[in-house]
Predict the 3D structure of the following.
Amino acid sequence: MTKLRFLGLFIILMAFVFTACDSDSGSDSWQSLGSWAEMNGTWEGTASQNYTIRDYLETYGEEEWTHWHHELYGNMSVRFTVVENITINSNTMRLTGTQRQTRAFSGGNTAALWPEIKNLFIELGHNVNDSNNSASIIFILSGALPDYIPPDWQINRNGNRVRTPSTVGNYMVYTRQ
């Protein structure tokens, strides 16, 4: 009988934990974005993803991974971070802002390869930071909002956070500024 009580208590406790916790953002409860007016104003969004160098090159590069790549790069990793600062004007149906993309390299043969990696990113118009082996570039964002709301865009119940699907990590999460 004691084992049954323990099991019952355990099941009730786990049900409470699973229903009380939102693994994405604590207390946020998400719903579909109803109109662009809900996003009127300025927002900052971030998304990041850690990659092994192999996954990064297979996702963003043009080469197929070979044994030679493993010998060259070792266990190098890349942290890819995207930060967007956007302003939405639902009256004019326009979006303006900036997007900063940063790739930080670490581990493996990073120290030996950094001069070559750095030169490649400089050629591509990036700013580089030798202190943390990173390369960043800023893009200007400007354009018309679509006539529809993407179905997978969600806003929290307080209206101060929006999340959208992202190719860098699972979601880009925007916070009202």
Observations:
- Residues 1-25 have pLDDT under 50 and may be disordered.
